[in-house]
Amino acid sequence: MQPSVTRENFDQWIVPTYAPASFVPVKAEGSTLWDQEGKSYIDFAGGIAVNALGHAHPDLQLALQQQATLLWHTGNGYTNEPILRLAKQLVDATFADRAFFCNSGAEANEAALKLARKVAMDNGHQDKNEIVAFKNAFHGRTLFTVSAGGQPAYSKDFAPLPQGIHHAVFNDLTSAAALINDQTCAVIVEPVQGEGGVVPAEPAFLRGLRELCDKHGALLIFDEVQTGVGRSGSLYAYMHYGVTPDVLTTAKALGGGFPMGAMLTTENLAAHLNVGSHGTTYGGNPLAGAVGGKVMELINRPEVLAGVAERHQWFVEGLNAINQRLQLFSEIRGLGLLIGCVLNQDFSGKAKQINLAAAQEGLMVLIAGASVVRFAPSLIITRQEVEEGLLRFERACRAVTEGASV
After folding, report:
1. Pick the CATH number of 7-56+302-401 from 3.90.1150.10, 3.20.20.10, 1.10.220.30, 3.40.630.30
2. Does 59 appear as a known binding residue?
3. Could you say which residues bind N(2)-acetyl-L-ornithine here (predicted)?
4. pLDDT at 406 over 80
5. Which is the most buried residue in 64, 159, 310, 329, by most CB within 10 A?
6. Residue 66 in contact with residue 72, Cβ under 8 Å?
């Protein structure tokens, strides 16, 4: 018999890098979860844009169960059928010719940045090692990726940081052009800054980055860890913008809840990561490949991608109606089912308070900075779940606007 555990045990046994909610979810289905007490929660957080098909999707369960009876893990000295099939799905569906599999978005970005530096080195440009990223970006928590992310709060305590990384202003092409030069090996950008406040890139900005990279021989890396696998309403957001990167990173929704990531790139660039130059023990294991393959099969369908745009409208219309009544948000922005509600000046800094109030009402939401409430729900969330979740969200917002203690 399993010993009982509580939320308090987290504070006793777990390294305190997180401050999790006061409740402990124990089961879930679709976009509804239940905690240890049986209380239900509508999930607008999606495991931070991971659960693109909701919880306990029967087809994903079956894919995992079937593979679990066959082959779990061999290490990177061997390949396996599920990961080869997933690689074929990804290269067939995107600009890429090759895939490198890993376990997370941070690892995918780490691989992309290492690739950029190695390409320059292999081509005889030892001084071409600088990376241009953007303020308020988020690319992961490894030392390299947290340095590329433009949020000093996440990196300042780990100095000295990797050098040669410069940060321009997002959506400001003049700022980027001032930093991109012939010593730049890569520009890394999120098509929508997620952690930075759910800020979509302007199309002209991404087009301009493509031109600057071409001019200076730098790789353009799109971090699509959060925007990829249907979240934008296109399979990948670069398709929405019509700007093709040299390297794309993907994770989160790719595994539908099973940890996995990938770096996608072209034949010529992939050749620089030759045998022994990079690797990962768990990356590309058969369980991840089986689940990821089923995720891609289910999401990369016209009706599912079109449904993202439809659900975006459900949310925006509902949120605008709430805002008319409460006058809480200065802007509702985002792309597809990555939506940010920007608190107005009267409620600036209270996103976490709304997050806590939502949990009390039986709703899971995210924040993106101190003043943005973020939604990243399942791409197939039902209208009933959206409507019930927005009712709970309005009650939470009203509690905050009326000054109730949370």
Report:
1. 3.90.1150.10
2. no
3. 141, 280
4. no
5. 329
6. no
